[in-house]
Amino acid sequence: MTHILVIEDDASIVKNLTLLLQDKGFQTTVAMTQKEALMILDAQTFDLVLLDLALPDGHGFVICSTIKREYEIPVIFLTASGDEGSIVTGFELGADDYVAKPFRPLELISRIANVLRRNKSEKTTFHVQNVTVDSVRATVTKAGHEIYLSALEYRLLLVFLHHPGQVLSRTRLLEEIWDIAGEFVNDNTLTVYIKRLREKIEDDSQKPTIITTVRGLGYKVGD
């Protein structure tokens, strides 16, 4: 499920926006201050941020810079300020879109869908907990230290990261990775590779929190 962080201090807007997003099938988390938002970003994984410019403890431009630099999450500004200067500054800081309040609900949903679609096709860096994957350089780091994955382990991890929050069946995983090494991967081999991958990326492979098992259905990464 697509997870959206709403950073907005107006309680009435938060209420209406949360209802709208949830009605459209989005998982929604709310932060009402810059400080709260940064704490949440460190603890959870998001697909998009809706960000108000005027926050009680800082300007939205500041947190936008942090989000784009440290988390690489698409950002849509929500603001009553429609002046050209704010729009230009927002885009210079890396904002993906800009919607002035009061916004029309269907237009906002359309803009969210467009940004998510564009970001998915362009995304090359993935984060889950303390693990980062750079698909351009084909590197994997854990807590800042590079770790080695075999070609099939790396491909398996990418499959999970391209489908965050989705339960992937063993059959689906086998279809994705069977020929990466030029040979057939059977069900038992898949079990072995998931075990090896967990040993390399999890803090405790016996109690995995990155690649979790959904009993009777398969596996998933993220929420």
List keywords for this structure.
Rossmann fold, 8 helices, 223 residues, alpha/beta, Arc Repressor Mutant, subunit A, 23% strand
In short:
With 223 residues, the protein is an alpha/beta fold.
pLDDT < 50 runs, ≥5 residues: none
Number of distinct helices: 8
CATH homologous superfamily of the largest domain - what is it?
Answer: Response regulator
Q: How are the strands of the biggest sheet laid out side by side? A: 2-1-3-6-7
Please name the CATH topology of the largest domain: Rossmann fold
CATH architect. name of the largest domain: 3-Layer(aba) Sandwich
Order of helices and strands: EHEHEEEHEHEHEEEEHHHEE
Give the class-level CATH name of the largest domain. Answer: Alpha Beta
Strand content: 15-25%
Distance between the first and last residues' Cα: 7 Å
Number of separate strands: 13
Number of domain units: 2
Give average pLDDT, whole number: 86
> Major sheet, described briefly?
5 strands, parallel
The global form is: elongated
Structural class: alpha/beta
